[in-house]
Amino acid sequence: MSRRILVILGQPSSNSLCAALASTYADAARHAGAEVRLLELGEMQFDPILHHGYEHSQPLETDLRNAQVDITWAQHLVWVYPIWWGGLPALLKGFLDRIFLPGFAFKYRSNSALWDRLLAGRTAELLVTMDFPPWYYRWVQRQPGHRQMKQSILEFSGIRPVRVHSFGPVVKSSAARRAAWIEHVRMLGTRAGLR
């Protein structure tokens, strides 16, 4: 049985390095034998603002309901996005706020601070671009965006292991450097599709 992979492009622009990385990974995994679906958040119709927090239910738009179906279907989730201002792009954060809800991603146990991780059994990869060297983001800034996505969102919901691949600095990068990143992502997609 082929592996089910969902690639989520969290960069709003479909004409970006992130978009090229997402399509390269998806194509390579598909070519290696995986079933692959691609979600492009910039093409989806939804309100990214959780207007009342978790106090009141906010009905999900059709695209968000379909995204939940895709996440439930997937065995492996690949999140592709840039680091902006040290963290996730607003559109990606809004997407997560809207669909990683109690009852879908997690469920607190009654009379307890513990919770059930409802998305357990899935793995993930983060393909993240940035405009500074990955070593600087790791050792100087302490990777706030990576930690938020990996630990506070995905692992909290039961998705593990989560592997992180950082690409940067993108600003002023050469065509050869970008081609090398794309080739690396092609290898990652092929490897994921063969599992």
UniProtKB/TrEMBL annotation:
- This protein's source sits in the domain of life called Bacteria
Give the Flavodoxin-like fold domain ranges: 4-179
Q: Name one GO molecular function term.
A: NAD(P)H dehydrogenase (quinone) activity
Q: Give yes or no: UniProt keyword Protease.
A: no
GO CC: one term? Answer: cytosol
Residue ranges of coiled coil: none
Q: Which InterPro entries match?
A: Flavodoxin_fold (IPR003680), Flavoprotein-like_sf (IPR029039), NAD(P)H_dehydrogenase_qn (IPR051545)
Keyword Oxidoreductase among record annotations: yes
UniProt keywords (A-Z) are:
Oxidoreductase
Assigned protein family: Belongs to the NAD(P)H dehydrogenase (quinone) family.
Protein name stated in the entry:
NADPH-quinone reductase (Modulator of drug activity B)
Q: What is the lineage of its organism?
A: Bacteria, Pseudomonadati, Pseudomonadota, Betaproteobacteria, Burkholderiales
